[in-house]
Recover the amino acids of this structure.
């Protein structure tokens, strides 16, 4: 494609073996109601072994091919930024089909308020993949973002935009720490907020997600790719007691309730106590009651059978959160304990060396006569 002159937006799409999804995602971008001379499209092929680059060449102004082993979307997005010419960077995942008004709305947000540094949207209510788990995951994303509109303390790179100046000041995506898709955008959002940057969540800026979820993939994602690294990040940044979206106060409370329910249920037969069974049941009931609005919403948009299937998935979600939180907290406390012991040992050794150095000094003879 011909390079546009003086674009207002640079749209960056990282892709690894994404030929199939790009064949839908890139035409969706091209269907934008923002005139194309006002934006450019950059696709970064992260060492794909399929026809990703060939598909991208049909739609993109610039295609960057990375050789060797894939280094992840964080690295790919950073590489795309180097080729970008606009002051506003728009990040769109390869398996995301944006609505026609997305680019225009991004530009309108930044034009209307120069103090906004970043903005991101949400998935719509029409996820492409069928099946309970796929529908649950993608619709849940929409529900959470739609209920948290306004000021945000993190960022989402699936369909998000950021001023180049803020992105560079924050230090780009941490590609070294996140060499695979994880929470690189969340971590970037925390750095932006620590710099005093404003981030907006606009759930009316929507896109369709093409990803097909399996139960195994969902568990792996919640534990390995999001739960553990996100929990560690919160501990490192001292933000365990604050947050929005998936880490707001109510979510932490329900995670604790899930942990208590499981512990009580395991101990009940050992202690021969029906009280513990009651405690476990009460915790489960609390989780269901606090999720009733979500369950009703699923019933309205997908029907009662899907809503019924969401119930065990929600309980599994909180149990996984509890397991992750417990494991990471134990590791964190253990590492601090070991660190404190090492520090005390080093301090004692230092003090002993100091004493030895003092006692081996030759006695002063006083001034020469």
């Amino acid at each position: 494609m011909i390079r546009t002159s003086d674009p207002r937006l640079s749209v960056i799409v990282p892709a690894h073996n994404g030929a199939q999804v790009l064949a839908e995602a890139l035409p969706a971008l091209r269907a934008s109601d923002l005139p194309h001379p006002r934006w450019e499209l950059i696709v970064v092929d992260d060492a794909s072994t399929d026809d990703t680059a060939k598909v991208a060449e049909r739609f993109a102004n610039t295609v960057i091919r990375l050789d060797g082993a894939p280094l992840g979307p964080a690295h790919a997005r950073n590489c795309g930024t180097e080729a970008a010419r606009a002051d506003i960077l728009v990040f769109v995942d390869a398996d995301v089909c944006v609505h026609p008004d997305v680019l225009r709305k991004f530009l309108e947000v930044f034009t209307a308020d120069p103090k906004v540094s970043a903005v991101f949207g949400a998935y719509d209510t029409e996820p492409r993949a069928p099946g309970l788990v796929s529908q649950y995951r993608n619709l849940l994303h929409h529900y959470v973002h739609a209920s948290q509109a306004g000021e945000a303390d993190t960022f989402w790179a699936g369909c998000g935009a950021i001023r180049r100046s803020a992105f560079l000041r924050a230090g780009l995506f941490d590609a070294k720490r996140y060499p695979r898709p994880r929470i690189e955008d969340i971590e970037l959002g925390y750095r932006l907020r620590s710099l005093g940057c404003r981030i907006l969540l606009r759930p009316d800026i929507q896109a369709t997600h093409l990803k097909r979820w399996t139960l195994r993939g969902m568990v792996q994602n919640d534990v390995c790719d999001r739960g553990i690294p996100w929990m560690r990040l919160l501990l490192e940044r001292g933000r365990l007691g604050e947050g929005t979206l998936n880490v707001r106060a109510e979510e932490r409370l329900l995670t604790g309730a899930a942990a208590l329910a499981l512990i009580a249920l395991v101990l009940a037969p050992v202690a021969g106590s029906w009280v513990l069974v009651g405690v476990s049941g009460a915790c489960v009931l609390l989780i269901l009651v606090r999720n009733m609005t979500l369950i009703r919403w699923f019933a309205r948009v997908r029907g009662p059978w899907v809503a019924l299937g969401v119930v065990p998935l929600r309980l599994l979600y909180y149990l996984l959160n509890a397991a992750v939180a417990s494991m990471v907290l134990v590791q964190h406390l253990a590492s601090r304990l070991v660190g404190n012991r090492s520090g005390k040992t080093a301090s004692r050794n230092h003090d002993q060396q100091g004493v030895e150095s003092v006692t081996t000094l030759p006695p002063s003879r006083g001034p020469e006569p």
